Amino acid sequence: NAGVTQTPKFQVLKTGQSMTLQCAQDMNHEYMSWYRQDPGMGLRLIHYSVGAGITDQGEVPNGYNVSRSTTEDFPLRLLSAAPSQTSVYFCASSLVESSYNEQFFGPGTRLTVL
Amino acid sequence: QKEVEQDPGPLSVPEGAIVSLNCTYSNSAFQYFMWYRQYSRKGPELLMYTYSSGNKEDGRFTAQVDKSSKYISLFIRDSQPSDSATYLCAPWGAMDSNYQLIWGAGTKLIIKP
Question: Which of B27, B46, B49, B30 is nearest to B85 (CA)?
């Protein structure tokens, strides 16, 4: 099992550019989510999905879109990049029926917006 | 007030010391209490979890929950340089149908050889 994979590992954008961060998992997990991690602020939930075709907003959704057409993939799209979106982005997945909701994380994407 | 409060540190201790990492939380409905460990430039990984109040031991690590005071602790005995990482607490309640974890800010731990 590859677990949760993310691409790219690093990205530099200019203000106003758009891009898609890719996330895939091969564990047949129903739940997938995107977080951003900034120094001193912990993990903040951007968007999440409890299954194919179902997505919802988290704590900080503005400026981001998601879609979930398959169980495996959950891409995150930045519509018009801003310097405030400079961060490390993590994708995570978990089994809905897990009693303690263990989340499995990808290696992260480091994004810089100039 | 945040739902989960955690001192971000950094906490620097000498090798072999006993380390105590702590979180407080506000929602009395939380039932599971997770500790994740995150090495530099990596994603978090589940270290251990406890259910309800009490202690749980796993090797050099002990997780403790006091629901009466809403206090979560992680103790590391005989700390090693390889324990240097950021530790995030994440309480969770099975009643939350959105399956969202509530995260502490994480405490950066540095073990000096």
Answer: B46
- pLDDT tens digits, one per residue of A2-23: 899 999 999 999 999 999 999 9
Q: Which residues of A touch B102 (CB under 8 A)?
A: none
Are residues A108 and B8, on separate chains, in Cβ contact within 8 Å?
no
Low-confidence ranges of chain A (pLDDT < 70): none
Q: In whole angstroms, give the CA distance from residue A92 to residue B97.
A: 17
Which pLDDT belongs to residue B96?
60
What are the 10-residue block averages of pLDDT along chain B, 113 residues in total? Answer: 85 97 92 95 96 92 95 97 97 71 93 96
| Chain A residues within 8 A of B41 when measuring between CB atoms | 108
CB–CB contact A99 B94 (8 Å): yes
Q: What is d(CA A18, CA B78) in angstroms, rounded to the nearest whole number? A: 48
